[in-house]
Amino acid sequence: MQNSGVQFLDFGLPPEETTPALPGAYVRKTANGPLLQLRFDPASGKHLLNHDDGAPPETVRPELRLPFERSLALLAEQWLPLPFFRFSQAGGFLNGPANWARMRFTPLTQPDEDGCLWRITLAFDTQRQETDPPALAPDANDVSAGLAFALAHHSRDLDEFLDQTWVDGWLRDVFRQQAAARERRSENALHGALKTFEYQAHYLNLLTLLGERLRLPTIRLIADGPQAAPVPVDLILDVGNSHTCGIVVEQHAQERDGLKQTCALQLRDFSQPHRLHQAPFDSRLEFAQASFGPENYSFQSGRERAFCWPSLVRVGGEASRLAAQRQGAEGSTGLSSPRRYLWDEQPYSHGWRFNQPQEPMAAAAPLSLLLNDEGQPLYTLPPAQRLPVFSAHYSRSALMTLMLSELLAQTLMQINSVAQRLTQPHGNAPRRLRQIILTPARRDAETGARTVPPPHGRSRRSGLDGARLAGRRRAAAAGDPNGVGRGHLRPDGVSVQRNAGQLRRRQQSVFCRHGAPGSPRRPARRGAAHRLH
Fold first, then answer.
1. 3-state SS, one letter per residue, for 126-170
2. Burial class, 131, CB count within 10 angstroms (exposed 0-12 / middle 13-18 / buried 19+)
3. Which of 2, 237, 307, 384 would staple 221 via disulfide (CB 3.0–4.6 Å)?
4. What's the pLDDT tens digit per position in 111-164?
5. Residue 117 and residue 404: Cα distance in Å, rounded?
6. Integer Rg of the chain from CA
């Protein structure tokens, strides 16, 4: 779906014959490269080089032989450029686009349900290119003509692609870093390997696995139009202090049951992109950028905004894992629950940092161009005060905005993903986010904190929140204004209840165990823990 952000396709390498028995064999086209792929002839036991002009294959002695297992181990968990070019059944591959697709191979510690030990993640930047020539990304003509895109995995189709400076530099740098770290190669050994174009051989091995083991389908971009009217989609979002969950609801004109086409909100894990989280996830937030490879080489190609994820933060299990792995100590990189700090609108004096080894300031385009230093949206300020971020001192209240921006970006990606659309009616129609059902925040008169009241005056606060608030009120009435007596429910006693009956029983049990001093030990009336004054 065009202009739907970054879209992912997930595959697993088949468990049987995951890699070819024979190593990949290559020879240089010229002394300056690039490499050409050789085909093994079982009848003669020799390697043949096919020619594009229709001449008979030439018997050639390989200059490089590299096992596929070695290439997988060397380039695992690395984003690499993917040659997914315009394709015509009559004329073969056409020119470009060169910078709109990425690939990543990830080993699994345990076989998945299909027995695969490797996961392959393909990422596509669906942003349409508006300038000429359309050599880096798809353009309007590609979409309107329904032109197909396919994987080019034969070396004869990759000469121009591999000769591009940004592609060659990307592959060289990844090879140098991984060979030094994983194979402990010396500087002299690396220099010799680069001269023989070993980095290209490993890369071509991975493309061969994609082309011959997976046989990837062709791809077409779909646009809005009279023949494919957008399907409206609603997002129902419940943000809690400890956990958050969401539901995506599609509204089809022919369906009478508006809640029939539903699914849980999914979160793509960008530090482990082969993972999808769709259970109720942690409300934790962590500043981290989504990376799809070295940005300097992508910028060098001439496309400045390729694979630009609009959010600054990660949410849920990925955020919790990043927080546990943090090594630096300068500034802060995240917050356990933005909802708990909706009352704090003051600039955060310690400043916010990205969760990276160098811990740079937590500011990056495009979102940092829409906020000021305190996290206030620029459109809400007078024109003279609309200055973008210079130092990331966002208030803790503003972090809720950043959290919601990440959830919205994930939602827009999910509803237009191939995997999601094919499970719903009208799978070829684009999806449009129509509305977000989210209870608004307001200040509680007694605690000074912002709470989230539900529609029609009924509160949807969790059993923990209601019990804590009621305990504080009883403690204050008993002369304990800090709420540290028996009327305070400690956070370490929290258990999330997903069943309404269990939640009511939990509330009654909480009130029986944590009544105010001198209060009778009786269950609270139903709903008492939810009532706000």
1. CCCECCCCCCCCCEHHHHHCCCEEEECCCHHHCHHHHHCHHHHHH
2. exposed
3. 2
4. 988 889 999 999 999 998 877 666 899 988 888 888 999 999 998 899 999 999
5. 35
6. 28
| Structure tokens that stand for 531 in this block | 């009532």
Tokens of 343: 């009352």
Nearest CA to 170 out of 293, 264, 346 is that of: 293
Phi/psi region, residue 457 (left: phi>0; alpha: psi -120 to 50; beta: rest), is left
Could you list the beta-strand ranges (E) of 17-169: 24-28, 35-37, 39-41, 46-49, 58-59, 64-66, 80-81, 84-88, 92-93, 101-107, 118-125, 148-151
8 Å CB contact between 460 and 454: yes
What is the Cα–Cα distance from 246 to 262, expressed in whole angstroms?
Answer: 10
Residue 108 in tokens: 């699994």
Closest CA to 122 of 155, 161, 81, 154: 81
Is-contact 340 400, C-beta < 8 A?
Answer: no
Helices (H) and strands (E) in the chain, counts: 12, 25
pLDDT tens by residue, 78-110: 999 999 999 988 778 888 899 999 999 999 999
DSSP-derived 3-state class of residue 470: helix
* Domains of the chain, residue spans: 6-214, 231-437, 442-530
**How far apart, in whole angstroms, are the C-alpha atoms of residue 521 and residue 467?**
15
In terms of Cβ atoms closer than 10 Å to its own Cβ (0-12, 13-18, 19+), residue 404 is middle
